[in-house]
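Marked as duplicate of an earlier ticket. Keeping the data here for the record.
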Amino acid sequence: MIEKITRREMLRRAGAAGGALAVGGMAPALAKDPRRPLLYGAGIIWGRWVNLPRDYDDRQMDLLKSLGGTVCSASFDWVDVERTPGKWDWSYADHTVDAAQKRKLKQIAFIGNTARWALPTGVSPNLTYRFPPRDNCESAFYNYCRTAAARYRGRVEMFQFWNEPNGCGWVKDGCANADQFALYTRWLKVAYAGLKAGNPHCIVAAGALDYNQGVKDGYKYIEGMYKNGAYGHFDTISIHPYGEPLHWEALSDTHRVMSENGDSHKGIWITEYGWSDSKGEGPAEKLREVLRRLSTPEFSYVKLANYLCVTDLPGKGEQYGLADRDLHPRPIAMAFREMATGAQV
């Protein structure tokens, strides 16, 4: 029986291992909006997550670039880069940044995944992706954020703090974190201060919220962030509006709450979207619909969209990838190229 692995399970496994981890058919594609070139991104499944060499990362970036992609992921997980207090290892992060720079791909860097030595007392070392540091490691966390931003200043300018803290990526069991915005906001402030100290010009995204079609009133988490002082401590809000084909209401509700709190000028990033079954023409049509609609004035406040992954998630199943594990493009990849370049394929 083929094992299927969810996005949340991928993150759990990566944390345990020390890594972050207009409807219609063939209507002509719109050329990419030159004012919003970052609508055409996709995440990288790092070679070390699937026991493949580093050149697998290069090959994924080559494929993404050939499809007209403009942005990909970067992972600066604390658990990886500072395994021992004060001893840094940026070798894998350097490799991923160098590879993206050679291909002129911008990157969104993940910040989080607590170093094991900084976890709260009693927390399993396999739960680095769920827990912020203990209180007496706040300065160490600040230093990690500052160091990452300073090291890659001028090369990596976009950062995302944590992943799905309103869902399965935060402290309460059972993914029951919709009310945990106060604790998240507290650490968001530290991350923002550290990142800006390292690079005052970087862009910091808050949230990366699980806002799929099954999440009701997800905007209330954002309201809670504002009530706990988040205003002024982020540059954009990112969400994961998974849906069929997208949870459009999540975008409009997020923008509404931001506008109500004086942040209407700040854009929204979609840092994850996609479909578990990405094979065949159905997902290709969904992607065309999503990118076509995002490029319209209705969603002018969406400044970045990042498809979940270039290749399938780790595990034995085939899920989400624009291409299979051998990097053979699927029809959805051809649809991506069509929308990103304006070329019929």
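See parent ticket for discussion. Residues 65 and 103 are 7 Å apart (CA to CA).
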